[in-house]
Specification:
The complex is a heterodimer of chains A (109) and B (112). Chain A is built from no helices and eleven strands. With 109 residues, chain A is mainly beta. In chain A, the strands form two sheets. In chain A, strands 2, 4, 5, 9, 10 and 11 form a six-stranded mixed beta sheet that branches. Chain A has a five-stranded antiparallel beta sheet with strand order 1-3-8-7-6, with no helix packed on it. In chain A, strand 7 and strand 8 form a beta hairpin. The radius of gyration of chain A is 13 Å and the shape is globular. Classes of the chains: A mainly beta (109), B mainly beta (112).
Chain lengths: 109, 112
Amino acid sequence: KNEVEQSPQNLTAQEGEFITINCSYSVGISALHWLQQHPGGGIVSLFMLSSGKKKHGRLIATINIQEKHSSLHITASHPRDSAVYICAALPNTGNQFYFGTGTSLTVIP
Amino acid sequence: DTAVSQTPKYLVTQMGNDKSIKCEQNLGHDTMYWYKQDSKKFLKIMFSYNNKELIINETVPNRFSPKSPDKAHLNLHINSLELGDSAVYFCASSQAVWNEQFFGPGTRLTVL
């Protein structure tokens, strides 16, 4: 069993829709990292957060440390948001990131 | 300006060969990492270096040997390549250990 679970595994949305991707983890963590992997393969850091909420453009990440849960929201989704979104949890022991298996998002025009 | 670069981008080789992948970062970061992404797209840490010192060495065959000549470079050498080594290998860096990570473009290794 993976320490980090993401849902859904696959998501198809119409352009303009509000999208939520969930990440839950089984260990106590000190931080959570959201990454985006483009269809071409490159990986980009979106957020790293340890509490509350962070916003960058149309992307919002929230985390509830006590509930061991984080969400990534995309407002007014666009086809260029189509990618795999990966969350990675840094345990309190801080010895490595545990990665989720990713959520594949397709936004249809 | 490229922040984390890797060469080569693609590497196709025969079983049993030895190959190297190079990684360089110009972000002034202290920590660098090598990850392996398998066919199911799962990222797994292989090695981490902080200030040229090895700090993470996951359960990786000793055919894989990282080398960090300075803080800006972390190269990966693989001996006696096997079919199961086929994957995409990503280099990453962060300002300090387990801070926000910045990834290179990846090297797709195919072993025939």
